[in-house]
Amino acid sequence: MNNQRRSLLKAALAPLLLPFFGHEALAAQPPLSEISEIRIIQAKDPARILDRVSTSGFAHSMAQSVLAYIIESYPKGNLPVWKKPLSEIDLHSRIPVICTHVVQGVLRHASIYPVDPCWIMGQMMAESFFYEFAVSSALAVGPCQFMAATARGYNLVCADRHGQPAGFALREDLEPEFKQAATYRDQMRALRREQPDLFGNPAKLLRTLVNAQAAGKPLSAAGTYALALDRMDLLQASYTASRDNCRLFLSENFQNRSIFSPQDVAFLEKFDQRVLYSHSINAMVKMMAENLRARGGNILAATAGYNAGLGNTDSKYGVYSTYGRIPNFGETVDYVSKILVNHHEITRRIV
Question: How far does the signal peptide extend, from start to end residue (predicted)?
Fold first, then answer.
């Protein structure tokens, strides 16, 4: 984008930015940098990041950069995840608080491995677009999209096992659905292990079946494959029904609540801490620090591990085993790609 177009864009955005930054902040904004720095292999020495993050006003500058990026990128239409226009979402209250928690987490866990706070902001944007009550189709919850099992590893209370007495939560009749969904999920995994070719490489199996049929020697296992497919269809339908009930349970208990209400926060502390910044962001930064340490500072492999599981980023080949890899999963590749862009756009706007 040339300077003239950028000037026109800033002029058009000025009225939108005023509620967030004020006249003085807008007037003082420098031109956007065309260059942002990301070291793929992050240094183990925390001094470089800590010196920057510890600077007075860094969290504020990062918050302004994130807000400016969102405002410029989504002037019309609904925001991802929120499914509402920017004008209906109070991001100017949320983002500064989120940035403060990110900086605190980076400082707290620097001894594990230094984490770039702008990367975490870009990652959270890809995960949930900063929506505290986001619930994914896989039942990941909160701004950092933690699955319950992972969250409990960081001592977070989760809705499926909140441990409160009867009458505490709404729609308690739906709580058993979490266990039922887990059972169906385990059965589907077991079936995939039993039939690795059918569910892992169906194209190869289909070719084998077609060739056998053409040769007049149909495979005796064809009937077994058909039964396995029918079984998987039934399990998938049952799992989907249970999962949808789990999402309904979460939705009923999140509805009309606010993380800025002391009364609601008191409930959420006991019901599901994944939606609260202090818990989820601290856990996210710590997990990324642990992933970076496990992958020799490779931020791409560490991030892929957050999305797909760290075990899926293993590499068995010589020097590469230290740094890991990005697994060939479409969702994970898309995830890491978005975060790279988010990081670039955030860092180039920091004053």
Answer: 1-27
